[in-house]
Amino acid sequence: MDDISPSDLKTILHSKRANIYYLQHCRVLVNGGRVEYVTDAGKQSLYWNIPIANTTTILLGTGTSITQAAMRELAKAGVLVGFCGGGGTPLFCANEVDIEVAWFAPQSEYRPTEYLQAWVKFWFDDDLRLLAAKQFQQLRLQRLLQQWQQRSLREAGFGVPQNRLEELVQRSSRNIELAQDTATLLTEEARLTKALFKLAVDAVGYGEFTRAKRGTGSDPANRFLDHGNYLAYGLGATATWVLGLPHGLAVLHGKTRRGGLVFDVADLVKDATILPQAFLSAMRGDDEQGFRRNCIEALTRSESLDFMIDSLKIIASDTAAKVPG
After folding, report:
1. What is the tens place of the pLDDT at every residue in 36-56?
2. CA-CA-CA-CA torsion for 259, 93, 85, 243, nearest 10 degrees?
3. Using CA of residue 208, residue 209, residue 215, residue 221, what is the dihedral sign?
């Protein structure tokens, strides 16, 4: 049988890929035609294969390096690469997104233009862009309600009273529909998130909790929220790349932020999947590796990337259809 190059397997749909990698203190290189990462154990070097055909995102943390040959193979397979600090946060600058989230996106001249054309068709209309932002938020609420009522989550110790959850979702849904501008939507988003933190704290018996940006302090839930959110950003960047949507065409998180669309897309799953796992792992005393593993399993099991891609398709087609003429 002829050997199959890893880059020949890149036709696996991104939405069906299972792997997100966070690597630290290693070298990423090509060895025998395979992309591998190398760790040192005393005088010995240990080589570990990266199944690039089944990988969406690689985060390179502290003490990492990568060869040109490895980047070439990753680009062929459509894998996004991000450089970040320890524990996956923050992500440092590269060529796709600025602020704190940045990715080296694979270059391809053959990605679809259908959804980009639909997106730009409505994007310059303020009213339609607001409509798209509302659709993002409504899909986010639907996902939240669906995921937080999963039996597996309750069995893990995250049992939220259904009446409180449904009441919160219904109130937020009404406020979203009544919003007259993105500033009001962002205010509602902040209110909803604060209420969800309260539900999560009560569900696991966490005690006092105040959300701190970038996980400052010794509170493990804050650190895990930041860490998990960056995994969601990785999936968001992958979803937009798959559909050929530039990260600067945000509908909610600001026209002046080049990476805003990644934040918009990541919000579809952050509350639904990352938030519960952050509090569960904090209560169990998980380390970062254990939390990351549980997060990735939850994102894969819930088909979060599929949901992101499908949501972008729906928003693009539905909103573009409302353009006059």
Report:
1. 999 887 666 788 888 888 888
2. 40
3. positive
